[in-house]
Specification:
Chain lengths: 726, 234
């Protein structure tokens, strides 16, 4: 079968299989009488899953007359009880984004990279065949290990295929944008349990709820994943269990989570790790820890006790660093240790620091101290669906941002492929990275709609959105229990867009053996490649018919207390060891207090759509609920500080750091600690489409280039800035 | 006849605004733009507002979801010179687009800011709903309903309807309304299950039970509007 014929078949198969459940037929004689709208001729509810954030909730899409008109949660998914967050509804505007790519594009002769994006001026449309041939020719030229692969938010199945392609092609230079947010936190937890998949369960299936949640800079109901599950469980823990659980939030900023918590404890930026050690100090010195768990399932406890119980981490000493009163620290520690199960939740504000992985480790150790590991309502280890193995071992680890920067600057990259990437919007020190990405010799951008990365592209391949493609997803750590979710096309791909699976298959075919061998091994020729891949991978555990009907597959119930097997550390136990916990007391950073007195933190609001675009009017017009801000973002300052600087509400201010300066609107509020400034991410775009461009500012432009020492994650919360009236 | 009411639990609500987005999506309410935002010309049938008080570090921000209050004594109905807005027998306050003359007295009269004036013709955006509403084939004789909403026009006032199209359809088919039955879009979409809908006159309904067991409050009670959207404070 030729490639052309294959494409035709896959499109037809997709269309036929989309009609899952026709639940309503037009009545005879009913005619569209009013205006141009058509009566409901066909109506389906397609079970698929969301991809506007990494939580990937199960959804059902109502499709009327071939148009997706409404998105609901899928009640077959117990992960979030069939509920979804607001982002899922915005999916319609991701799908019908008016600024989607319509055809493959190639950079026009003589048009420079990195100077904004004007599709009509900078690019010329080419055919799919031509585009694949051009990319294939380039990939044959470059040395395989010098191919860089950038990954934004993709379906799990596309992730697997991208890694398969990379392994078959012979590159291990993969970068995942998710590591920008989670690498340090994961690294810190890994120091304790050797695992990558620990999650906060909060509520077990038998309705054992967490009694006490101590959030260290964690926006549990705004930005922490898995968001929809967090939201649902928040409701349960508050009013659907006999004893309302207590939530205490430590954060420099009065976030939505802090507003809805029982207590907000303002804390100096970056001192959450020291606070965790002070809490450990109180728990240890007052003998409040879980001695059974600590003595049987942990190692390095004595050293940890010596360090944490030392006078350096006494509440009085730490109070000086954190500006939290010693008595508050004591009380919090006692409540935390006595209300079990309790969890200490490390959020981005605490871990996105040069000492972030240590802070994460210190916070994670609190969970071990109170015995909250692998118990109902505590920390659980997510199980994954037993997918059929890939035909080739695909490398898991890639490079971190620090290594990526070095690689690009040294000329270690000859060509790059970006899948749903919007790297430039999420990296710190935007201007520097703009220069680096401009220097990429060859960049192929694969994504559904125009975004800032198009400025660096030589070739643009229009891919489907998640509502037009096949795929599978695994539940994020949280419930413990394995859960697989299906993605199936709600509608046929718009314009000339094609799914990433098909694009990779074509590229592999173009490159020929050995790259194409694993792809050939998967594809049986009966249907489209994407569908065949999903069917094959999920075949071992779920019947295809059921999967397409329900959209969800559930694993066996989670078993708690598997202490013999959950820890992947050298000792096989939970490890308290960390050589660098003293570092947490010292949060000094380059620069000095007089020149740049503020620490700028960025936060991710709930309506920042995480799929690389913000071109969604619904999300834009209710962007920041706490401040009543739409179509904008603003820099938040403490009321008193602002008065001192002569800054009023709504004034234009200049935020200046070592990396540059930006101008933004000031938002003067009581709910932020003096000395801190905060901005929401997601805005400040220049090429994301008509509803996103020129709105707000991107705080990353002034974030400095510091990295977490262990994981190489950029430190988004540690930049010193000065603020003055514009 | 039932008397529909909505309960919003402010202890569970986290201000995620799933309700607002679901409302826009369900009722095909046009989205705004930066230009309209600045002029307060964008439309919301449901909006989440925040009110802050206190001084650092003892700050308190209340996040309040605001659908229409569907007052028992709606001031908007009293002032309407065209009888375009009216209170149905089941207590839902409706707006008839065809009768509305766009004078906006009702917007002034409403103490809750629940009403919006539509300043623009509906654009045929790709993502506006191409379908007619779910009650297309119900053959409504019982009320002069303003469907189809997708064909709204400029120059009239719009408002929340408690998703009457869902409720009426359920009543007609004899389905359960409220609880795990048919509910308005915002109630269905709420991820924290902070919202409840049902018959306030039925002592067995979920809403009545909540009102009997928890403290409750109504916004601007001093105005004697007697809202049927009722809040449970923290």
């Amino acid at each position: 079968m030729s490639r052309r014929a294959f494409l035709g078949v896959s499109a037809a198969a997709a269309a036929a299989l989309t009609a899952i459940m026709v639940i309503k037929r037009p009545r005879a004689g009913s005619s569209p009488e009013k205006g141009t709208e058509r009566a409901v001729e066909t109506e389906e509810l397609v079970a698929t899953s969301c991809l506007n954030c990494p939580t990937r909730c199960a959804i059902r899409v109502r499709v009327v007359n071939g148009k997706a008109v409404r998105i609901f949660g899928n009640s077959d998914s117990p992960y979030s009880d069939g509920k979804t967050c607001p982002r899922s509804h915005v999916g319609l505007q991701v799908l019908y984004n008016p600024d989607r790519f319509t055809t493959p594009l190639a950079r026009a002769q003589g048009r420079n990279k990195g100077d904004g994006v004007d599709l009509a001026r900078d690019f010329e449309p080419i055919s799919w065949g031509d585009a694949v041939a051009r990319v294939g020719r380039k990939l044959k030229e470059v040395s395989p290990e010098k191919l860089l692969i950038l990954r934004g938010l993709n379906t799990n199945s596309d992730e697997d295929l991208i890694r398969l392609f990379a392994a078959a092609y012979g590159t291990s230079t993969l970068f995942h944008e998710e590591t920008l947010e989670t690498a340090a936190d994961r690294e810190g937890k890994r120091m304790g349990d050797g695992r990558d998949n620990s999650g906060y369960e909060l509520m077990s299936r038998s309705r054992t709820g967490t009694k006490y949640i101590l959030a260290f800079g964690a926006g549990i109901v705004e930005s922490e994943r898995p968001l929809a599950r967090n939201l649902r469980l928040w409701g349960m823990l508050r009013r659907e269990t006999p004893n309302r659980s207590r939530v205490v939030v430590l954060d420099p900023r009065y976030s939505v989570t802090a507003a809805k918590a029982d207590q907000w404890i303002p804390i100096n930026p970056g001192t959450e790790g020291a606070m965790a050690m002070a809490i450990a100090n109180v728990i240890l010195s007052e003998e409040l820890y879980d001695s059974d768990f600590v003595s049987s399932h942990t190692s390095g406890f004595e050293d940890f006790r010596t360090l944490a119980a030392s006078v350096r981490f006494s509440p009085e000493k730490v109070a000086e660093v954190t500006s939290v009163a010693a008595e508050v620290i004591r009380q919090t520690a006692r409540d935390f240790a006595r209300s079990r199960p309790a969890v200490a939740w490390s959020g981005e504000a605490a871990t996105s620091w040069p000492h972030g992985s240590q802070a994460s480790h210190a916070i994670f150790c609190l969970n071990a101290l109170v015995g909250s590991i692998d118990v109902p309502g505590g920390i659980v280890y997510q199980e994954f669906p037993p997918y059929k193995p890939l035909p080739l071992d695909a490398a898991e680890e890639g490079v971190n941002l620090r290594e990526l920067g070095d690689l690009v600057r040294r000329g270690g990259v000859e060509a790059a492929l970006g899948f749903n990437s919007n790297l430039i919007m999420s990296v710190p020190s935007t201007a520097k990275w703009n220069g680096d990405l401009k220097g990429l010799p060859y960049y192929v951008h694969v994504g559904p709609a125009v975004n800032e990365m198009a400025a660096y592209a030589d070739i643009i391949l229009p891919s489907c959105t998640y509502l037009e493609q096949w795929g599978y997803e695994s539940a994020l750590p949280g419930s413990g229990r394995a859960e697989a979710r299906l993605k199936q096309p709600a509608i046929e791909p718009l314009h000339e867009s094609r799914d990433i699976a098909g694009i990779l298959f074509d590229l592999a075919e173009e490159l020929g053996p050995p790259v194409s061998n694993p792809f050939r091994a998967i594809w049986d020729g009966a249907e489209g490649f994407g569908e065949a891949f999903v069917k094959q991978r999920t075949g071992p555990f779920v019947a295809w018919r059921d999967f397409k009907r329900d959209g969800v597959w559930l694993g066996p119930d989670y078993q708690y207390g598997k202490y013999g097997e959950v820890f992947y550390t050298p000792s096989g136990k939970f490890e308290f060891e960390s050589a660098h916990l003293e570092r947490l007391l010292n949060v000094s950073r380059p620069g000095d207090d007089r020149e740049r007195p503020f620490t700028l933190g960025i936060y991710r609001p709930v309506l920042e759509i995480r799929s690389g675009t913000q071109n969604c009017p619904w999300a834009q017009e209710m962007f920041l609920v706490m401040d009543g801000i739409g179509w904008n973002n603003a820099v938040e300052l403490n009321h008193e500080t602002a008065q001192h600087l002569g800054i009023g509400e709504g004034d234009r201010v200049v935020i200046e750091s070592e990396s540059g300066e930006i101008e933004a609107e000031a938002r003067v509020r009581q709910g932020i600690i003096p000395g801190a400034a905060a901005m929401a991410t997601g805005q400040g775009r220049c090429a994301s489409g008509r509803w996103a461009d020129g709105i707000g500012v991107n705080p990353n432009e002034v974030i400095g280039s510091e990295y977490d020492e262990e994981s190489g994650q950029p430190s988004y919360f540690s930049t010193r800035v000065s603020i003055r009236k514009a | 006849m039932a008397r529909w009411g909505m309960i919003i639990d402010l202890d569970k609500c986290v201000g995620c605004q799933a309700c607002s987005v679901a409302c826009k999506s369900e009722n095909n309410v046009p989205h705004g733009s930066p230009h309209e935002w600045k002029r307060h010309q964008d439309l919301y049938w449901h909006k989440v507002i925040a009110a802050s008080e206190g001084v650092f570090p003892t700050v308190n921000t209340q996040i309040i979801p605001m659908p229409c209050m569907h007052c028992e004594h709606p001031p908007c109905v009293n002032v309407c010179p065209a009888k375009a807005t009216y209170r149905r027998g089941d207590g839902v306050v409706m707006q008839n687009f065809r009768r509305c003359i766009g004078c906006r007295y009702c917007i002034i009269a409403c103490p809750y800011g629940s009403r919006n004036f539509n300043f623009k013709d509906q654009e045929r955006q790709e993502y506006s709903r191409p379908d007619l509403p779910p009650d297309l084939d119900l053959g409504y004789a019982s009320h002069i309903g303003p469907w189809p909403y997708p064909r709204r026009t400029r120059g009239v006032v719009e408002k929340c309807t408690y998703c009457f199209h869902r409720i009426d359809q359920a009543v007609e088919k004899g389905q359960k309304v409220g609880g795990d039955g048919v509910v308005p879009a915002c109630v269905e979409a709420c991820p924290t299950n902070a919202r409840f809908f049902g018959d306030l006159d039925d002592p067995e309904s979920e809403v009545s039970r909540l009102l009997a067991t928890r403290n409750s409050m109504k916004l601007r009670e001093e105005m004697s509007t007697d809202p049927k959207t009722i809040y449970l404070p923290r």
